[in-house]
Design goal:
single chain, alpha+beta, 2 strands, 50% helix, elongated
Length: 139
């Protein structure tokens, strides 16, 4: 009996303060929706990071000349790793599936007809796409 009386009193209070009730309900709905969006974005980001980690694999490693100082990006003035080093790693380190050197240059000007942009240019070997599971769409 007491629970029924409390429910009726609550319904009466909600009915008497309709605008306040509407605003409270709207705030609750917006808050729950915001939490759902934040959680969905977090889960999507987590899944994307795990995909990248899994694509690289447990039997792979990345060596970057100048790395450990300013990652990212590495110190571009250091050029101590050469293609011959990649060959030596390929020969000497057992268990590596793919060894693929790469080089990149930042803020390179690229011009096509009348358009000019600054971009990052990557120089890679054909195996690079297999190592990272990043494939070309076209081109």
């Amino acid at each position: 009996m007491k629970a029924l009386r409390v429910a009726l009193e609550g319904a009466r209070a909600l009915n008497q303060n309709r605008l306040r009730t509407l605003l409270m309900m709207a705030g609750t709905v917006v808050g729950i929706a915001a939490l759902l969006v934040i959680m969905a974005v977090g889960k999507g980001t987590e899944r994307k990071v795990l995909e990248r980690v899994n694509n690289f694999g447990p039997r792979a490693m990345m060596l970057i000349a100048g790395g450990g100082k300013d990652l990212p990006p590495p110190d571009l003035t250091v050029t101590t790793l050469l293609p011959s080093d990649a060959e030596a790693i390929r020969r000497e380190v057992p268990g590596l599936d793919i060894v693929t050197p790469m080089a990149w240059s930042f803020r390179m000007g690229v011009k096509y007809e009348t358009e000019q942009i600054q971009c990052v240019l990557w120089g890679v070997e054909p195996d690079w796409h297999e190592a990272y599971a990043w494939y070309m769409e076209e081109g």
